[in-house]
Specification:
The complex is a heterodimer of chains A (340) and B (374). Chain A has helices at residues 6-11, 18-24, 29-34, 39-53, 68-89, 92-115, 120-134, 149-156, 180-186, 188-201, 209-225, 237-247, 254-266, 271-274, 286-297, 311-316, and strands spanning 139-141, 144-148, 170-172, 175-178, 229-231, 337-339. With 340 residues, chain A is an alpha+beta fold. Chain A has three domains: 6-119 and 190-225, no CATH class; 137-186, no CATH class; 237-339, no CATH class. A four-stranded antiparallel beta sheet of chain A has the order 1-2-4-3. Chain B is an alpha+beta fold and 374 residues long. Chain B has two domains: 3-100 and 142-203 and 282-325, DNA primase, PRIM domain (Alpha-Beta Complex); 209-275, no CATH class. The longest helix of chain B has 21 residues, at 143-163. Chain B starts with a helix and ends with a strand. Chains A and B meet through helix 8, strand 3 and helix 16 of A and helix 5 and helix 6 of B.
């Protein structure tokens, strides 16, 4: 595990083990609930979550050295108390938003440390975070950082923007070249997941009355963020086209059949409803069709229910016939889905 | 398949396996791999564990499979159902198939077989006999197809060694036994990648989903664009060569790209990816991390030819070197409207006639579905 000092814990408070850290600093949770002088920390913790729920990054200048001594308790404790409030509220949406906002906050420091212009130790610390938290061996190469292609891909696959695709990166000798900003951005999701996992795996502490009002407000806030959706019964153009190909008795490729089968199963149709669609295929065999649909549905085989492939994958297989109504969806299953 | 044809092919395959045990070996990490096989006229039998060459040879002789397969993946428990196998990693495999090259010669050596009435014909319309449109295409690849495949293999080899830094020693190229090649990458940093990550490698190798900015076009200030140079590594250097041809032509072509605009440049990059510099691998093969692949040294039931590793791809002659069934004269009824060549010997066309050919040619035509035992 990474060892860290004063500066690091302010920048990366999620690296601390919450309960142990409070104990080491000579505090108990009860003190935060009862001591009026510590109320400011609880207030700050609430603001930190509120700000995250609105998609903002909690802002605090760590570099202000005049404020350093007093900043440690407030900034680190407000993070740790925020975790306690989140545990008590039990709203998953808030945990996710908080984790992402904290990841984005840490990104700023990580990027600065990675460049390490003024401080070699910071650079080493940032490099170590990459290795310990994300298993990425990052190396400085002039103004760039290089990451082995395999490590890069494991993280870049979470992005949908084309600029993150390997083909759109500078690649040389098995390494991907990234700016410090890109290097840090690459791991945002994993950092968010790391923070989220730490929060979710922390024990839920006992509640104190002073926390209850804030917890109730958080529950209300979390409920507002929960989204309900309606799904139109209209099929996306790729699916319509696949059905049309089959209806015409033309051959639909294996990937086209996979797409159609998984889509219709995903929309709740039964194998018996789907199978007749394939009757016109040049190589139609009822037994094979039923076998394959059963495999897709997880009814037989590995018991894995296969998901409909992404739009990206469908494009790769020349099966995409996008129309404006597709509206930048990333999977055909999202077609016609509207937020209420 | 008719009983008589089935018996003939099974005997021919059995004889081949018996005579060529030296060519059929289990791959490295055999005990961690899943094996499978098919028999003529039956489905796939998989989730088999084999540890040694002896186990494999025993399986071949007792089952006389039409096709033998082995996983690219390594598992803790290879013989368990898929969800319990415990996937540990998989060799990266690329498949380049003649049908994906869309070469103009293909139509000259492809015939059609009606799956309703069995009629064999050359025309591209429906079945002339029963008018059905359920048609199977049968291709007998030619030297031009092989030259096209070798060109793609050479391009792929360059990207793998130069861009992805895969040592040449870790790359094995094999003729698939029908109309393509498989390229295996072993022991690399890429072997523990999942399907999604492999899909990114595919886009890289096929040169697809490219944005103009990567290749120098500045959308908001086109005049400040900085296009790739000839000496640059990776795709930039390849794009420069493809777009500009020579240094002397570059400045004129750069002005044209800028005046044509962003969208035209994107379309141009898409076009060269699809038609020239992109490598025509089959994406469905590389992305699959649970697939079982034809085992090297085994026969391909689509042709009766052997899947064989090529020491020197440039000099490899698949329809001679991978044609390993003996040449005992065999009588068949051949209905093959196309000429083809095996072991430097020309065959066909045959118009539903009885003829005597070497056994390897009889097996080839029967596997292709254009001949029957006499």
């Amino acid at each position: 595990m990474i060892s860290f000092g004063h500066d690091e814990i302010v920048k990366y408070p999620f690296l601390a083990e919450a309960g142990q850290y409070l104990k080491d600093q000579g505090f108990t949770l009860e003190q935060f609930a009862t001591d009026p002088d510590l109320q400011i920390i609880v207030d700050r913790a609430y603001e930190r979550i509120e700000s995250a729920s609105q998609g903002n990054i909690y802002n605090y200048k760590v570099d202000d050295s005049s404020n350093k001594d007093s900043s440690l308790p407030l900034e680190v404790f407000s993070f740790l108390i925020a975790i306690i409030l989140l545990k008590l509220a039990g709203m998953n949406t808030l945990v996710s938003r908080f984790s992402l906002a904290e990841a984005r906050r840490a990104e700023r420091f990580l990027e600065k440390d990675l460049v390490g212009k003024s401080n070699k130790t910071n650079e080493e610390f940032a490099t170590k975070i990459f290795l310990d938290l994300f298993s990425i061996k990052i190396k400085k190469n002039g103004d760039y950082f290089t990451i082995p292609i395999a490590d890069y891909l494991k993280h870049a696959v979470h992005f949908h923007e084309l600029e993150w695709k390997l083909i759109n990166r500078h690649v040389e000798n098995g390494m991907v070249f990234l700016t410090p900003h890109e290097s840090v951005r690459l791991t945002r999701k994993q950092l968010g997941n790391y923070i989220g996992t730490r929060i979710r795996s922390a024990q839920t502490p006992e509640s104190f009355q002073v926390f209850e009002e804030k917890v109730a407000k958080l529950v209300k806030m979390g409920k507002k963020l929960t989204v309900t959706t309606t799904i139109s019964t209209e099929f996306p153009p790729c699916i319509k086209r696949a059905i049309e190909v089959l209806n015409n008795g033309e051959n639909l490729s294996h990937s086209g059949r996979f797409m159609l089968g998984t889509f219709l199963l995903g929309r709740g149709q039964t194998i018996e409803q789907i199978a007749p669609l394939f009757k016109n295929a040049p190589d139609y065999k009822e037994r094979t069709t039923l076998y394959q649909l059963k495999q897709l549905s997880g009814e037989t085989g590995s018991n894995t229910k296969y998901a409909c492939p992404s739009c990206d994958k469908i494009k790769s297989n020349d099966l995409c016939f996008a129309i404006p109504e597709c509206d930048n969806i990333i999977n055909p299953m999202q077609f016609g889905k509207k937020r209420l | 398949m008719f009983e008589k044809d089935l018996k003939f092919l099974e005997d021919a395959f059995k004889q081949y396996y018996f005579d060529h045990f030296n060519l059929i070996n289990v791959p490295d990490r055999a005990s961690e791999r899943e094996f499978g096989y098919m028999k003529f006229n039956t489905g796939m039998i998989r989730h088999i564990s084999l540890k040694t060459d002896k186990d494999l040879h025993l399986m071949l002789m007792s089952n006389i499979p039409s096709d033998v397969f082995c996983s690219n993946a390594y598992y803790t428990f290879p013989s368990m159902p898929m969800s319990e196998k415990d996937w540990k990693g998989a060799d990266i495999i690329f498949d380049i198939d003649a049908k994906d090259l869309k070469l103009p010669c293909r139509k000259d050596h492809t015939c059609n077989k009606c799956t309703s009435c069995g009629e064999i014909f050359v025309s591209q319309d429906g079945c002339p006999k029963c008018k059905s449109n359920k048609i199977e295409h049968i291709s007998l690849p030619c030297d031009n197809c092989m030259a096209g495949l070798k060109k793609e293999l050479s391009k792929l080899d360059k990207v793998l060694t130069d861009d992805l830094n895969i040592p040449a020693n870790d790359i094995v190229t094999s003729f698939s036994g029908n109309e393509g090649f498989h390229l295996y990458v072993k022991h690399s940093q890429y072997n523990d990648l999942g399907s999604k990550e492999r899909s990114e490698l595919i886009d890289y190798i096929k040169f697809q989903k490219v944005i103009p900015e990567t290749f120098g076009f500045k959308k908001n200030n086109p005049s400040k664009s900085s296009f790739p140079e000839f000496g640059e590594s990776g795709w930039k250097g390849r794009v420069a060569k493809e777009l500009f041809g020579s240094k002397s032509k570059k400045s004129k072509l750069v002005s044209k790209i800028i005046s044509d605009g962003y969208v035209a440049y994107r379309e141009k990059l898409d076009e060269i990816g699809k038609n020239s510099i992109g490598i025509k691998i089959d994406p469905n093969v590389t992305v699959d991390i649970h697939r079982i692949f034809r085992l090297e040294g085994s026969l391909n039931s689509k042709s009766g030819l052997c899947k064989l590793a090529c020491k020197d791809v440039g000099k490899f002659r698949p329809y001679t070197e991978a044609c390993l069934i003996d040449d005992k004269p065999t009588e068949i009824i051949a209905n093959c409207p196309i000429k083809f060549q095996l072991k430097n010997k020309k065959f066909g066309p045959y118009n539903g006639e009885k003829t005597s050919v070497p056994k390897y040619a009889a097996v080839y035509m029967m596997c292709k579905g254009i001949a029957n035992s006499a």
